[in-house]
Amino acid sequence: MYPIAAFISGLVFGIGLIVSGMFNPAKVLGFLDLFGAWDPSLALVMAGAIVVGVPAFAAAARRSTTLLGTPMLLPAASGIDRRLALGSVLFGVGWGLAGFCPGPALVAFGAGYAKAAVFTVAMVLGMLVFELAERSRAHSGSSAESAAGPQ
To answer: Least CB-packed of 9, 52, 57, 79 within 10 Å?
Structure first.
């Protein structure tokens, strides 16, 4: 049942991106062009997502399991640290350069946009680099702890 629910959720998300036009990088770049021909439609899409998301997250926070019976796993971190700030900057730069963020890039890739294919490959490579860096960081952290010995 879980894969079916994930598929339906992704399908609804993708259809929403197509209906709103947010899979089109020109539309997104129009939103980011504050001093040119600014297109506020992305702000309306974001506002709509917030209107739906805030009550949904509030309801989810009161539950211990999902509607499918799996554990409710919500983010625990609430602070802003260096990693979050740097990641946000990198995400924003990539978004501004390409006109895509991950969800719309996958929809545009499925629609045959060559630029989306390049972005998607770069995104996956970036995710792999992050995974390798995290593993290296975890390994060096555990090596430092074992080298220090028991306290």
So the answer is: 79
Residue partners of 5: CB distance under 8 A and separation at least 6: 68
Residue-wise pLDDT for 39-66, tens only, equals 998 889 889 999 999 999 999 999 999 9
b/e per residue 9-46 (b: at least 16 CB within 10 A): eeeeebebbbebbbbbbebbbbbeeeeeeebeebeebe
Distance of CA 138 to the CA centre of its chain: 23
The pLDDT tens digits for 100-126 are 888 889 888 988 889 999 999 999 999
pTM: 0.69
Gap between the Cα atoms of 107 and 138, Å rounded: 34
DSSP assignment string, 80-122 = --HHHHHHHHHHHHHHHHHS--HHHHHHHHHTT-HHHHHHHHH
Please, are residues 105 and 24 in contact by the beta-carbon 8 Å criterion? no
Structure tokens at 56: 């949904």
C-alpha count within 13 angstroms, C-beta hemisphere, residue 133: 7
